[in-house]
Design brief:
Layout lengths: L2 H10 L16 E4 L11 E6 L8 E6 L5 E6 L6 E6 L7 E12 L2 E4 L6 E4 L4 H41 L11 E4 L2 E4 L3
Antiparallel strand pairs: 1-2, 2-5, 3-4, 3-6, 6-7, 6-8, 9-10
Length: about 190
């Protein structure tokens, strides 16, 4: 029997020959390569680095809690890391990522363990906070000013009504049969 047939037959029965079993490679390290703080609308650069002896591997980026591959990149010649670019980040996003790689060991493609989990938080630019705070202060000032103005008008109307009630003058129109002469009023035609 040929060696290939023997390996195939042993594989069917769940046996492995020494040197042919698949080993799990050591985990890569996932880091945030974006300098500074990640702001809303910006992209985040996530660098996945395998141990140096595993060059030219295939790298995969995942979202924690999902086995779906977000991105797949091949490392360049003689390189053992790649940089994933995650774009369209929002402040509501607090996502956790991890990566894995596959490399050839003894002419077989083997997978690594999962990397560390990297949490990417997006911050709000300071000018947005300033504009939001200024807008909130302006709104409060407008509401308070409108309230004060309404209360003042209401009090002014109330005072005007009170003055009218206390006044000795009445609102009567004079008819044409009254005349004015030297501060003396008399009725014409009497």
């Amino acid at each position: 029997m040929k060696l290939q047939q023997l390996v195939l037959l042993l594989g069917v029965f769940g046996m492995q020959i020494s040197g042919t079993r698949t080993e799990v490679l050591p985990p890569p390290v996932l880091t945030l390569a974006t300098p500074g703080v990640v702001r809303e609308g910006q992209s985040a650069n996530l660098q996945c680095t395998a141990p140096e002896q595993h060059k030219e591997g295939v790298f995969y980026l995942y979202l924690e809690g999902s086995n779906e591959t977000l991105q797949k990149l091949d490392a360049q010649e003689a390189r053992h890391s790649v940089t994933f670019i995650v774009s369209g980040l929002r402040t509501s996003d607090v996502k956790k990522y991890y990566c894995q790689y596959q490399a050839r060991v003894l002419d077989r493609l083997q997978s690594s363990e999962a990397s560390n989990v990297l949490q990417v938080m997006v911050s709000v630019p300071i000018w947005v906070i300033s504009v939001s705070a200024a807008g909130a202060v302006a709104a409060v000032v407008v509401v308070v000013s409108a309230s004060v103005l309404m209360v003042k008008r209401c009090k002014d109307r109330k005072k005007q009504k009170q003055r009218e009630m206390e006044s000795v003058w009445t609102k009567e129109t004079m008819t044409s049969d009254w005349s004015y002469d030297n501060m003396v009023f008399y009725k014409v035609g009497v």
